[in-house]
Amino acid sequence: MKDVILGLVGVGRIGVMHANNIAALNGALNPEGINVSLLLTDVAEDHARGIAAGLGAGFLPSVEELIAAGVDGLVIATGTGTHPELIKAGVDAGIPVFCEKPVAMNVADALPVLDYIRANNGVVQIGHQRRFDHGYLEAKRAYQAGELGWIHSLRAVTCDMAPPPVEFLASSGGLFRDCSVHDFDILRWLTGREIVEVYAKGSNNGDPAIGAVGDVDTALALVTFDNGTVGTVSATRYNGAGHDVRLEIQGSSRSLMVGLDEQTAMASAEAGIAFPAGEPHRTFAERFDQAYRSEMAAFVELILGRRENPCTPEDAVAASRVADAAQESLATGVPVKVVLAAANAG
């Protein structure tokens, strides 16, 4: 029996989800007898103590005490502004770190963090959970096996059923940074190509408060890859049919759709077609439940040295570069070249 102790910082919405998934690692996702235990910390102590008690986890009042307790890995689920210093704290302690995306508030702030991780031989996995979704994994396998031929078109869709609080949007960095960055990451990961240019447009037809804080509720980006292939990335905060995340990959030999199943949030306009008949997902946590659980299992495997890092900080920053270009294009109305870096390859 191998014991692994994880320390979780931040028990908001994402943190609670990760805490539950960590608690479940000793079940079906853990057939090898690895005993995973959990320690929590959060500035909202009463809330965190309650979550810990419900999961049979421990609570400590500070990050410093959490690390000093001898955790084998640090899971960061706090606000983006705290990510750089918490990542550095885990690296300084010599333990692997899992951090929700992004690395920092913007690429400029993230670059010194990348330098720090590399200079100190840190191991940091960033939370781009779509890399663990069965559909995306199958699409990547099929493409790499040559079953699709060469790709001529890609269409990525991410639609929230309802917008998050305006207070969150005011500091999220914009729809492309907050939402579409997942699509930018998965397009790089699946194709193995870099996005070199973005042209974006957006609109506000929902809550005027979203526009008042400088965001849009719906946007579309035309992306160009380094081999000339083109694709689109669209997002909205107002998809009343349900939470809808899909990727259409059209190749010279075959086409695939990720996210097309009985819970797809749409209906056919054609006569006699009942598909899909299931209840659509309502939230991203429902849509990617399996992927989030697999992501945390992968972090434990990374701690144990059983796998390579499935999403490096360099990968995450590369996706953020595209998101930054999309936000710039949205603001200026002209196509924007993506600033690439040698460390982007992932």
Cα distance, first to last residue? 33 Å
CATH topology of the largest domain: Dihydrodipicolinate Reductase, domain 2
Please give the order of strands in the largest beta sheet.
12-11-7-10-9-8-13
Number of domains: 2
Question: What summary fits the major beta sheet?
Answer: 7 strands, mixed
The overall average pLDDT, rounded, is 94
Approximate strand percentage = 15-25%
Range of helix content: 25-40%
Structural class by SSE content: alpha/beta
Give the overall silhouette.
globular
User: Runs with pLDDT <50, length 5+?
Assistant: none
Count of discrete alpha- or pi-helical segments spanning 4 or more residues: 12
N to C succession of SSEs: EHEHEHEHEHEHEHHEHEEEEHHHE
CATH architecture of the largest domain: 2-Layer Sandwich
Radius of gyration: 20 Å
General description of the model:
The two termini are 33 Å apart. α5 runs antiparallel to α12, α6 (134-144) packs parallel to α8 and α8 packs across α12. The model has no long low-confidence stretch (mean pLDDT 94). This protein has a 7-stranded mixed beta sheet. It has a 6-stranded parallel beta sheet with strand order 3-2-1-4-5-6, sandwiched between helices. It is an alpha/beta fold and 346 residues long. The radius of gyration is 20 Å and the shape is globular. The protein has helices at 13-23, 45-55, 63-68, 83-92, 107-119, 134-144, 166-169, 175-191, 208-212, 284-287, 289-303, 313-332, and strands at residues 2-9, 34-41, 58-59, 73-76, 97-100, 124-127, 151-159, 195-203, 218-225, 230-236, 244-251, 255-258, 336-337. β5 (97-100), α5 and β6 (124-127) form a beta-alpha-beta unit. The chain folds into 2 domains: 2-122, NAD(P)-binding Rossmann-like Domain (Rossmann fold, 3-Layer(aba) Sandwich); 131-282 and 318-337, 2-Layer Sandwich (Dihydrodipicolinate Reductase, domain 2). The longest helix is centred in the last third of the chain and has 20 residues, at 313-332.
